[in-house]
């Protein structure tokens, strides 16, 4: 035992030292996890917050463009299309998180892994369809502002 451990053991009561020694002797540091896993799945909460952050400004923008300015432009329609795609993307993301998305591969069965791969493929395809109108909308707005 090193000197620091001896000093620490002297500061503790004999009962505490006995408990710590018993715990230390029964632990296998090679297999013991460093942290306990998170309890619950927070993907649905995160998706709900993301949809709220996306939909509320869109509603305000569409209301302002239709009632105040009375002119909707192509970028507004592209944003509506993009948020509609995001609403369709979100349930697939939640289902994927419950089937194994975000879990270490060694904690999955082969069946779960294959289902996760299929849902990941769907998510990638839908993401492309969702992000394209959003990026086009930003580019058209930048062109309108700067040119």
From TrEMBL:
The family database entries (InterPro entries) matched by this protein are listed as: Rhodopsin_dom_fungi, SAT4-like
Write out the coiled-coil annotation as residue ranges: none
Per the UniProt record, which residue ranges are transmembrane? Answer: 42-64, 76-99, 119-140
Pull one GO CC term from this UniProt entry. Answer: membrane
Signal peptide bounds: none
List the protein's name.
Answer: Rhodopsin domain-containing protein
Entry's localization field = Membrane
Q: Which UniProt keywords apply?
A: Membrane, Transmembrane, Transmembrane helix
Q: Does the keyword Nucleus apply?
A: no
The UniProt entry, under Pfam families, shows:
Fung_rhodopsin
Superkingdom, natural source: Eukaryota
Q: Topology with regard to the membrane? A: Multi-pass membrane protein
- Organism per entry: Talaromyces proteolyticus
Which ranges carry the Rhodopsin domain?
60-146
Task: Name the family the entry cites.
Answer: Belongs to the SAT4 family.
């Amino acid at each position: 035992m090193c000197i620091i451990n001896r000093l620490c053991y002297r500061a503790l009561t004999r009962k505490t030292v006995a408990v710590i020694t018993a715990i230390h002797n029964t632990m296998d540091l090679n297999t013991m996890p460093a942290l306990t896993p998170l309890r619950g799945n927070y993907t649905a909460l995160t998706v709900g917050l993301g949809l709220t952050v996306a939909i509320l400004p869109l509603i305000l923008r569409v209301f302002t463009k239709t009632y105040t300015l009375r002119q909707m432009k192509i970028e507004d329609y592209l944003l509506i299309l993009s948020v509609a795609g995001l609403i369709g993307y979100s349930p697939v993301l939640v289902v994927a998180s419950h089937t194994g998305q975000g879990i270490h591969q060694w904690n999955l069965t082969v069946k779960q892994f294959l289902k996760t791969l299929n849902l990941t493929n769907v998510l990638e395809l839908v993401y492309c369809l969702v992000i394209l109108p959003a990026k086009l909308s930003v580019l058209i707005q930048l062109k309108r502002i700067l040119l």
